[in-house]
Amino acid sequence: MPNGSLDSYLHAHITHATLSWTQRLHIIKGVASGLLYLHEDWEQVIVH
Fold first, then answer.
1. Following DSSP, what letter does each residue of 15-43 receive, concatenated?
2. Rounded to whole angstroms, what are the CA distances from 35 to 12, 17, 22, 40?
C-alpha cells in the first residue's frame, strides 16, 4: 500500500502519521458495514 497498512496506522508503527479516535471509529464502521453486507445482503456464499 502506498501509505502503509491499516495495522501500522492503528498500532502506531508509522510515527509520522497517527489516526485520531474519530478516524478509527470511521474505519471500524466501514469494516462492520462491509462485513454486514457480506453476511446478509450478498447473494453468493464466500469464505473470508
1. TT----HHHHHHHHHHHHHHHHIIIII-S
2. 25, 27, 20, 8
Q: Which three cell numbers stand for residue 41?
A: 445482503
Mind listing the pLDDT tens digit of every residue in the chain (48 residues)? 567 777 777 776 656 667 788 988 998 999 999 989 988 888 887 776
**Beta strand spans in 1-48 (E):** none
Domain limits, the chain: 6-41
User: For the chain, how far is it from start to end, CA to CA, in angstroms?
Assistant: 21
Contact 18, 9 (CB under 8 A): yes
